[in-house]
Amino acid sequence: MERTLIILKPDALQRGLLGEILSRFEKAGLKIVGMKMVHPNEQHYHHHYETISKLKSRVSEETYKQNTDFMLSAPVIAAVIEGVEAVSLVRKIVGDTEPKAAAPGTVRGDYSHMSIKHANEKGGALPNLIHASGNTQEAKEEIAHWFSENELFDYKTAHEHLTQNPKN
Hints:
Elements: E1 2-8, H1 10-14, H2 18-27, E2 31-38, H3 42-52, H4 55-58, H5 61-72, E3 76-83, H6 86-94, H7 107-111, H8 116-122, E4 130-132, H9 136-146, H10 158-163
Helix pairs in contact: 3-5, 3-9
């Protein structure tokens, strides 16, 4: 089984969309194996956005600063999701990074509408509700950064119990 990290951003929390978003992963057959509400400091976000994903290096200092300031504005929900090809499935459920370009039926396509152009004109971050690891290596690094091993759980869902091979 593969694991990936999601972060429900301040706008998801402030809009009361946490349950709706999390239920989409569960309905797709994915399992939440770790979850917590946290309010990380700038150093934590620097490690996440620059050391791991190279946001400042890939995009710009300004984008990094706007995004970090936005993330510091309120607590977030960090969760580890597990399932078959979880990284790509979660990315599919979440939708395009730019909400305006996200397909209907995705989290961003259904619950946000902002364009990168509009966010840039307003001089702020792009409120797009959720972060999802971009690839399996990034997922491993992000999970290790946000969670200790004792915060992650191994259990069987009701579905796993029902489909378990009786010979096992």
